[in-house]
Each structure stands twice: as C-alpha cells, then as structure tokens.
Amino acid sequence: MDAxxxxxxxxxxxxxxxxxxxxxxRAIAAAELRRIPDQTIADFQAAGFxxxxxxxxxGGLEVEPRTFFDVQRTVACACPSSAWVLGVVGVHAWQxxxxxxxxxEEVWSSDPRTLISSSYAPTxxxxxxxxxxxxxxxxxxxxxxxxxxxxxxxxFVPVDxxxxxxxxxxxxxxxxxxxxxxxxxxxLRATGSKDIVxxxxxxxxxxxxxxxxxxxxKSSGNEHNRAPLYRLxxxxxxxxxxxxxxxxxAEGMLEAYCVxxxxxxxxSEGNRVAEDGSxxxxxxxxxxxxxxVKLSLYRNFDEMMTLxxxxxxxxxxxxxxxxxxxxxxxxxxxxxxxxxxxxSGGRAIFLDSPLQRFFQDVHAARAHYANNPDKPGRNFGAxxxxxxxxxxxx
Length: 394
What we know:
CATH superfamily of the largest domain: Butyryl-CoA Dehydrogenase, subunit A, domain 3
Helix content: 40-55%
Structural class: alpha+beta
Number of strands: 8
Number of domains: 3
Largest sheet: 4 strands, mixed
Strand order of the largest sheet: 1-4-5-8
Order of helices and strands: HHHHHEEEEEEEEHHHHHHH
CATH topology of the largest domain: Butyryl-CoA Dehydrogenase, subunit A, domain 3
C-alpha cells in the first residue's frame, strides 16, 4: 500500500465500534471464564481483525499500523482483555510475515485464519541440533493461547565465547507443547495468559526468527512480503501491541466516569457532583492525557511509515524516542485512570462496575515488561547525551 487508506481505516474502526456493546456485555462473564469467549474470537475473525497485519499473499489486509491500533484501542474501551488478546495475537501475523517462507506455509497454507500466541521472555533452554534446535522449559503469560494452534517462544541460541547474543523467536505447533492453566489474577483476567510448557522439542531452523534481523529490518520474510508495513522494526510494532490497550482503557474509564458522575448526588450535601470543580478538573486532565498519547502514537507511526515507503532507514535516535513514548503511554493512562477512580466514590469498587475493571486492567498492563518506562527512559536520555543505544528492542 503506497498511502494511508482512510476508507479502509474507517471501515475497520466502524466494525470495532459496532462490537462495543456486545463486548461490554460479555466482560464480566469473560473474567469469570479467565479467557476470551469463543464467540468473541469468532466475532474478531468475522470482522477480519486478526488478519489486519497479515500479508496479502495469504489473504491478509496489510492495513496501516494506525488502523490496527485504533481498532485495538476502540475494543479496549469496551473490554480491555479482549483488546489485549487482539493486540498481541494480531501482531503475530505481522511477525510470521518476517519468518522464512516455509514457516509461513506451515502455518497458513491449510488455514490462513490460524492464530499464534507467544511468550517472548527467554526463560527456556535452547540446544543446537542438526538442522535446528531442541528447546525445553516453561514460558509464562501466553495471552489467548487457548485459541491458538501455534506459539512463538523466546530463547537464546548458544554462541561461541565472545560472540554477541543470539536471541530468537521459536515457532512451535500445539502438538509440541502443553498449556498449564495457572491464570488466576486480579487484572486482565479474561486474557487467559497461561504458561506454555515444552519438553525437549525439535524446532527446525526455518521456524526461527532472529531478533537482530527484526532490529535491522532485514528478515528472511522481507524477500517475499515487500509491503512497507513489513519494513518496520519488530520492536516498534510489538511494544505498541501491549501499550495501546491502555489508551482505550483510559477512554473507556473516562466515558464510564462521566456517565456515573453526571448522575451522582453527594450524600452529605445533596449537591450534584458534576457541579464540583474537582470532578470537572479530573475529567479535563484525563481527556488531555488521552489526546496526548493518541497523537504520539499517530505521529510516530506516520513518520515510520513515510520512511518505510521511501525505503529509508528509521534513525536510531527516533526509534529510541518512539520506544520511550510507547512505555509512557501506559504510565500516563494509568495516572489518568487512577485520578478518575479516586474521584468516583465508593460505588466504583463494586465488581459489576466498569470503573474498577479499567482500574485493575490498566495496572496489569503496566506490569508488562515492555511497559516499564525505566530502561527505555534511561536509554533515551543516554542517546540524547551522546552515548550509544543499548536497546535492540526498538
């Protein structure tokens, strides 16, 4: 795609808006189920949401990142867990496009709607073997894994002494792992982010993707999937898949706050809470924070896509900045949600209140490693001060 397709963007976002009442109605039951309901996955499949970042050669839509993330953000207004699963599972179609073509064929040739979950933290053991690797271990937080037939697992390939680390993503079919149902949590309860357990399984070379190739935007899959979308750095796309839901959570929280507060009457004084200056100010600050992080998201991807279309490299100093912006989005949204929650009164703590759900879920999102602003903040500051970049997940 040579330019932003505004008509396609509007169609996809409209589909997400139309699903909001249904997703809100399922939210409590989904939390009790501890995974996304099958019908929600079916709704997302019917809408084409999981195929937004999939290559056109497999029937995918190859939408702009802005479209993908606006759909995720819209879904998060209604059900943060559903948006979280949509984001992380949906972005895996984009990463599979970077794998060697034989890996893409294994996953999509029989069913292009096949889904992949993940756990990127390199917590397992990797050994070299003829034609590939043998891996074992336990990987946590594999969101949406119950609905997926394959999984991406992170790991370090053994290297010679003095050689740079070789971190890769390993692609495994469901027959090669088991799911440990240990997802009992307070926030993002419906994401079903359970553990993946692997016992000495062989993974062929073609089912691996090197982190350094994603960093350099020179992956094997680029030979076959040539759209500008696939010339973006892996880290830039992935981190936004776990931070953008927070923007929708803040929007949903503000909407719920305004509805509830407009009807509230202070028990002690009998005055309408909506007429209280502090109640008004907290709404204004939240709206301003949401606008800021949305504009940052749009600006960053507009800049990256302009360079990708021109087949130009994205400067490291900008990538470092964009990585920091992604982590800051969650921090700023969590702060806005905290203020709205505090101003909402005692009724907000009841389990049937969407206010407490947004509060719990945004703090679960903030706990994700990629949403911790400390490391990207230090790196961003160091680069500004003339030091070298130390982060390859940008």
